[in-house]
């Protein structure tokens, strides 16, 4: 037996479960699980896996704690604002369970490091909020033969599935391509009920514990959906696709690559950079341009650019007449996603000289106005 006296005490409620016992706890102790993203999903997943006694836990996150994270990312407190998520999470989990090893990866996961990072772990939990990363991690897990527990959240709804190598379909079998050309909302723009990732991240931890100990049935070939408003869970079966680009019979993806999604890189001729915006605001007369902030009123109230007029994206359709068609219309939002949508709508409504600010106020804060973090 590899469990110490202290561990026998700590995990006694696991040891009392006949399906689990000492053998199950020893399997947890020997297991290495990596969690991509210490955010809404990663917070509960990491907390429960650390508490459960998973011997080695990896945390991959390059972000810093922001006040808007605290509504759902329960690993962090008010005092952690501005600190590295990976560093704070490491401290918090070590305080919860000093008997496990925590490995912090304070990097942005990408095509060049994903294989390296994932290869030293047994199981991968994906808690990222970007489609690019979700597909990248799925493809890397298939190529590395690593089980993957994937989850996603949107507003009041969540979904989860588990990929078991050589036994079931992968994420790409269900959703072959990222919704390219579409505008993909994330938590920042679409909003999310704070407790929702708590439910889904806990489900991810449960799946990982079952994969490690071999008890129960995981979501292999099943998509679990959760509707928090209706309070309904449902599962849908799906099968491996023989033409899947990564796990199919003749895969075309043999090395992980980042597939670009429209929202990730708004790059068209209607976008202007932060530097271009700054130049326009300082050089052009306001008689020649109108700056429209399409965020919601509560975001605008927290902070906005001096000459910006607030017309939330949802109300834009009722406000076309209030816009001056002889001026250059510049749409701005938090990250550049809603403003890109606004820009497309404007063009459809005949405002030919409309542009959106790529990177939005987030980038403005990072590059121009570093002291005014509250603006977003
Ligand atoms: Zn597949």
Could you walk me through the main structural features you see in this protein, from its secondary elements to its overall organization?
With 376 residues, the chain is an alpha/beta fold. The chain folds into 2 domains: 31-237, Rossmann fold (3-Layer(aba) Sandwich); 271-375, Rhodanese-like domain (Oxidized Rhodanese, domain 1). Helix content is 33%, strand content 17%. It has 14 helices and 13 strands. The protein has helices at 5-10, 12-15, 21-30, 42-52, 85-96, 114-119, 131-144, 171-174, 187-190, 196-213, 274-283, 297-302, 337-348, 360-367, and strands spanning 32-36, 56-60, 101-105, 123-126, 148-154, 157-163, 222-227, 232-237, 271-272, 289-293, 309-310, 328-332, 354-357. The strands form 2 sheets. It has an 8-stranded mixed beta sheet with strand order 3-2-1-4-5-6-7-8, with helices on both faces. A 5-stranded parallel beta sheet has the order 9-13-12-10-11. Helix 4 (42-52) links the parallel strand 1 and strand 2 (56-60). Helix 4 runs parallel beside helix 5. Mean pLDDT is 89; it is low at 180-184 and 261-267. Zinc ion is lined by residues 169-170, 172-173, 241, 244, 246-247.
């Amino acid at each position: 037996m590899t469990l110490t006296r202290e561990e026998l005490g700590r995990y006694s409620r696991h040891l009392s479960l006949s399906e689990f016992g000492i053998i199950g706890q020893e399997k947890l102790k020997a297991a290495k699980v990596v969690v991509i993203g210490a955010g809404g999903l990663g917070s509960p997943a990491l907390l429960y896996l650390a508490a459960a006694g998973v011997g080695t836990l990896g945390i991959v996150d390059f972000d810093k704690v922001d006040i808007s994270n605290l509504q759902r990312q329960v690993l962090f407190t008010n005092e952690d604002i501005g600190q590295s998520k990976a560093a704070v999470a490491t401290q918090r989990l070590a305080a919860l369970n000093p008997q496990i090893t925590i490995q912090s990866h304070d990097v942005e996961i990408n095509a060049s490091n994903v294989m390296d990072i994932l290869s030293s772990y047994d199981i991968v939990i994906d808690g990222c909020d970007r489609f690019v990363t979700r597909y990248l991690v799925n493809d890397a897990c298939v190529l590395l033969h690593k089980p993957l527990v994937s989850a996603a959240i949107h507003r009041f709804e969540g979904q989860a599935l588990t990929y078991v190598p050589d036994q079931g379909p992968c994420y790409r079998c269900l959703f072959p391509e990222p919704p390219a050309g579409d505008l993909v909302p994330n938590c920042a723009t679409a909003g999310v009920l704070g407790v929702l990732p708590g439910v889904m991240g806990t489900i991810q931890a449960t799946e990982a514990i079952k994969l490690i100990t071999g008890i129960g049935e995981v979501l292999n070939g099943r998509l679990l959906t959760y509707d928090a408003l209706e309070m309904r869970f449902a599962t849908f079966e799906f099968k491996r696709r023989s033409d899947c680009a990564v796990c199919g019979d003749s895969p075309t993806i043999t090395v992980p690559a980042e597939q670009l999604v429209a929202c990730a890189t708004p790059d068209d001729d209607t976008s202007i950079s932060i530097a271009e915006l700054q130049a326009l605001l300082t050089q052009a007369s306001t008689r020649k341009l109108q700056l429209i902030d399409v965020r919601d009123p509560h975001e605008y109230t927290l902070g906005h650019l001096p000459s910006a007029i607030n017309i939330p994206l949802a109300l834009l359709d009722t406000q076309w007449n209030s816009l001056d068609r002889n001026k250059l219309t510049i749409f701005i939002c938090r990250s550049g996603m809603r403003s890109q949508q606004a820009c497309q709508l404007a063009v459809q409504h005949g405002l030919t000289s409309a542009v959106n600010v790529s990177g939005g106020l987030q980038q403005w804060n990072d590059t121009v106005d570093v002291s005014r973090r509250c603006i977003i």
